[in-house]
Design a protein that fits this description.
This protein has about 280 residues and is an alpha+beta fold. The protein has ten helices and eight strands. The radius of gyration is 29 Å and the shape is elongated.
């Protein structure tokens, strides 16, 4: 076979230059370690986590195409629901608190728009045949005597009933649209902490957040947390099995080094190839 002499010369060159081989492997291992260590970089071209449920659908699936057409036509369809529980909504102090919360949330870095009682229009016809298109808070704060009627008007509105204010009359919703809808940027930007800080007002008892962006960010964080635990545990299990099988420290050490280098190389290649982890992979 003509390939045998070539393989023989290759094997001979490797055995006669052990330090060259060792340093080459060390250099490749160091490079792979650097790549893997940068996989959570915000803008790096490395391994990332894709927690979007819609991306689990095949690219040619009809549902996937409908979703992509809807997002291209109407823009971001993933608002964040920010819920604040306070002492009471239907009081002058409560409505002023909602108005202040709306302004503070709108000024928060990373938020592009906010929708709440402070911006939701409440169409009212006056005696002069004029139509008042002011928001619920604007009308109530302009005329505090109307505050007792506000609850009934809000319940009678089919768009806002049980949406902007809960049935307990204490929980109010703010619908936020974020400037960035990327999971990694959502986690790295600290916007959740800024939003919670903006809601620190007297009378506010509790805040909560939900929405696809929040869920995807939580899923991404859970995947990374799981990998940081399961991969070392799997590696440790292999080392224990090798120790039980060979009962030799040197053999276990060499095998563990080989496995570690192979894992680093595999992750590095996946990172450079743009491989994305999702709920399936």
């Amino acid at each position: 076979m003509p390939a045998a002499p070539d393989l023989g010369r290759l094997a001979l060159s490797i055995t006669t230059r052990p330090w060259t081989v060792i340093f080459s492997v060390l250099a490749l291992t160091l490079l792979a370690f650097i790549i893997v260590a940068m996989t959570r970089a915000e803008d790096g071209p490395w391994l990332t986590v894709d927690a979007s449920v819609e991306n689990l659908l095949p690219a040619q699936a009809q549902d996937r195409q409908v979703w992509e057409r809807a997002t291209s036509r109407f823009g971001d369809l993933d608002p964040v629901l920010f819920v604040v529980k306070m002492e009471s909504v239907y009081t002058e102090a409560g409505l002023r608190r909602i108005d202040e919360l709306h302004r503070r949330l709108a000024r928060t870095s990373g938020v592009s728009s906010v929708f709440s009682l402070a911006t939701a229009p409440n169409l009212l016809a006056s005696d002069e045949d004029d139509i008042d298109v002011g928001s619920f808070t604007e009308q109530a704060l302009r005329d505090p005597a109307r505050i007792p009627q506000l609850r009934a008007e809000l319940r009678a509105n089919p768009l806002y009933a049980r949406t902007l204010v809960a049935d307990d009359d204490r929980s109010v919703a703010f619908i936020l649209r974020l400037a960035e809808n990327d999971d990694a940027k959502f986690l790295a930007s600290g916007i959740e902490q800024r939003l919670r800080a903006a809601a620190e007002l007297p009378g506010v008892e509790r805040v909560a957040m939900t929405g696809n962006a929040v869920l995807r960010a939580a899923t991404t964080d859970a995947i990374w947390s799981g990998l940081s635990l399961t991969v070392p545990l799997a590696f440790l299990a292999v080392v224990v099995l090798l120790a039980l099988a060979f009962r030799s420290a040197s053999v276990v050490l060499l095998a563990a080094i080989n496995i570690g280098v192979a894992l680093l190389m595999m992750w590095a290649v996946g990172a450079l190839a743009g491989f994305r982890l999702n709920l399936v992979t």
